[in-house]
Amino acid sequence: MAIGRKEVEHVARLARLELSEEEVALYTEQLGRILEYVDKLGELDTEKVEPLSHASAGGNVFRADAVKESFPREAILGEAPKSDGAHFRVPPVVE
Question: For residue 22, what is the domain's CATH number?
């Protein structure tokens, strides 16, 4: 499977990325090599390999939830640059 400059520019446009000519050339080459490798993997004989539902058969590695005391609200809000007594005050992020 080959990838061309047109596909790289299309994906960059979808991702709202502005790429220079050098970056387009570089990414075209790199993505081409990645796709060649994926094609090569497709040539492997996987007839006797059982399908996996997950790459790790270890199961859940998270600790069990435990109820414990949390920090007092006043102590946490006291560390904030700004608060209204009950909430953190942050600058607006919508223009």
Answer: 1.10.20.60
Nearest to 4 by CA among 28, 24, 39: 28
- Per-residue pLDDT tens over the stretch 16-71: 999 999 999 999 999 999 999 999 988 999 899 888 877 776 777 788 889 999 99
Is 52 inside any structural domain?
no
| The two structure tokens encoding residue 84 | 């209204």
pTM above 0.70, yes or no: no
Confirm if 79 and 71 have CB atoms less than 8 A apart. Answer: no
The total of structural domains in the chain comes to 1
